[in-house]
Amino acid sequence: MTLPPRLTPLLAQFDFACERLLARLAGPVMDSGNGVDIRVPPLGDEEYRWEPVPGCWSVRRRGDGPGPRATVLTGAGDWGRDSADSPHPSPPPFTTVAWRLSHLSEMLALRADHTCGGRSLTRDGYRTPGDAAGAVAAFETASAAWRDALLTADDVALDTVGYSTYPNGSDPEEPFVDIVWWVNQEVLHHGAEIALLRDLYRARPS
């Protein structure tokens, strides 16, 4: 299938955002933005769950229970992500690299499934890795799944309201092209937040 012209720049933006985030996480080098390679240490477990301020939301062992102001650890398996029923705490808790990366990977995996998969995956069934290497691999897998979902979309699909039936967003009420744009913004802004947290971790007082 020929890629719709409207989708081409959005797909290129998504690819750029994912490649840049993965390089920032996995190293060993990344493009500084002007063609110069800079060294990047791979994300480690301590940094993955580093809480720079009190009261962070993060990814935690299920047996330890939710963190401050959280009421539940979402997902399946031995680890879960801090969350709370609506309305969420105000002001929002500061979130760790682990929380942000888990959020991105879950969103991409579920949206891919609810676009061209079995349309059955839920937050309760998503398994959040408790280690950095597993989290980076999960993001790589989820972003590839969403990319594959985008490649199923022709011009009719881009204009179809509810082409994605992802239940944790506005997907059932929005044209698919708007959802594609929104997902890009999620990866871009959370990727920038994760990059800043990596800078802060590197510069923290010893």
Assembly state of the chains shown: single chain
Largest sheet: 3 strands, antiparallel
Sequence of strands across the biggest β-sheet: 3-5-4
Q: Please give the CATH architecture.
A: Up-down Bundle
Please report the number of helical segments: 6
Strand content: 5-15%
Name the average pLDDT.
95
Helix content: 40-55%
CATH top level class name? Mainly Alpha
Number of domains: 1
Task: Please describe what this structure looks like.
By secondary structure, this protein is mainly α. The protein has a single domain, classed as Four Helix Bundle (Hemerythrin (Met), subunit A), CATH 1.20.120. Helix content is about 45%, strand content about 10%. The protein is built from six helices and five strands. Strands 3-5-4 form a three-stranded antiparallel beta sheet. It has a two-stranded antiparallel ribbon with strand order 1-2. Helix 1 packs antiparallel against helix 4 and helix 3 runs parallel beside helix 4. It is globular and about 55 Å long. The mean pLDDT is about 95.
Features:
206 residues; Four Helix Bundle (Hemerythrin (Met), subunit A); three-stranded antiparallel β-sheet; mainly alpha; two-stranded antiparallel sheet; 5 strands
Helices and strands, with pairings:
Blueprint: H1 7-26, E1 29-31, E2 37-39, H2 45-48, E3 59-61, E4 72-74, E5 79-83, H3 97-116, H4 132-150, H5 155-159, H6 176-203
Helix pairs in contact: 1-4, 1-6, 3-4, 3-6
Offer a quick outline of the entry:
The chain has six helices and five strands, in the order αββαβββαααα.
